[in-house]
């Protein structure tokens, strides 16, 4: 805890004072351009990997970057999505999974979370991912299995978020764009789902947007 306290002190005494004008502007209100949905994993830092600052991202985090379908869980997730889209009018929603995700691994091996009843219950919102992997990727194993599960899981959340009325309305008006990303802890690279090629590819301006779920073109997929 000590290093957190000293960091806080340093922020207040140095950074905040130096950037006073910037922080004064934030007091007046927020106008983030994107809702960024990602995992609670401490190794994933939305602001760091997008090189953005305070006020730019409205962030929703939970174990496994899960977006429960509308009505499935009337918790903070749905309220955060509604607020971001309907009140703050974000133009983009990024759903960003990550490599070596513990929640996705627990989804593949439920016994790992057996002693964690609340985690197990939460992961039930990801049953679609579990089933897609169990039934369609019978040939995949090890790290390759986790990687494809992380990717499919992000696409399932892209589908789920479209069941939220506030999102559906803005998508229909063309005022909102969805992005399916996977961040790699090993390389710092972000892969984005390419609609055109039906697979995750290194992120660039052309392939970032996705509008709906499509099948991943993966050789491990059961034919
Ligand atoms: Zn994770």
Question: What this model shows, in words?
Answer:
The structure is a single chain. This protein is α/β, with parallel strands linked by helices. The protein folds into 2 domains: 1-30; 33-210, Carbonic anhydrase (Beta-carbonic Anhydrase, Chain A, 3-Layer(aba) Sandwich), CATH 3.40.1050.10. It has helices at 2-18, 20-27, 46-50, 76-87, 102-108, 117-123, 127-136, 142-161, 165-172; strands at residues 34-39, 57-62, 92-98, 177-183, 190-194, 199-202, 209-210. Strands 1, 2, 3, 4, 5, 6 and 7 form a 7-stranded mixed β-sheet that branches. Helix 4 runs parallel beside helix 9 (165-172) and helix 7 (127-136) crosses helix 8 (142-161). The mean pLDDT is 92. The structure holds zinc ion. The site of zinc ion has 7 residues, from helix 5.
């Amino acid at each position: 805890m000590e290093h957190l306290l000293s960091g806080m002190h340093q922020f207040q005494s140095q950074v905040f004072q130096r950037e006073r004008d910037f922080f004064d502007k934030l007091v007046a209100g927020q106008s983030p351009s994107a809702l960024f949905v990602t995992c609670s994993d401490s190794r994933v830092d939305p602001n760091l990997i997008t090189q953005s600052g305070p006020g730019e991202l409205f962030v929703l985090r939970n174990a496994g970057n899960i977006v429960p379908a509308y009505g499935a869980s009337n918790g903070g997730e749905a309220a955060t999505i509604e607020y971001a889209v309907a009140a703050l009018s974000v133009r983009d929603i990024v759903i960003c999974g990550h490599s070596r995700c513990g929640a996705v691994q627990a989804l593949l091996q439920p016994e790992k979370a057996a002693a964690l009843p609340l985690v197990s219950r939460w992961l039930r919102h990801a049953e679609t991912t579990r089933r897609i992997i169990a039934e369609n990727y019978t040939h995949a194993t090890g790290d390759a299995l986790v990687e494809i599960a992380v990717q499919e899981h992000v696409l399932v959340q892209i589908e789920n978020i479209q069941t939220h009325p506030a999102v559906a309305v803005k998508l229909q008006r063309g005022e909102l764009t969805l992005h399916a990303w996977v961040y790699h802890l090993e390389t710092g690279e972000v892969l984005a789902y390419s609609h055109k090629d039906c697979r995750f590819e290194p992120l660039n301006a052309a392939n970032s947007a996705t509008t709906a779920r499509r099948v991943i073109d993966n050789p491990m997929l059961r034919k």
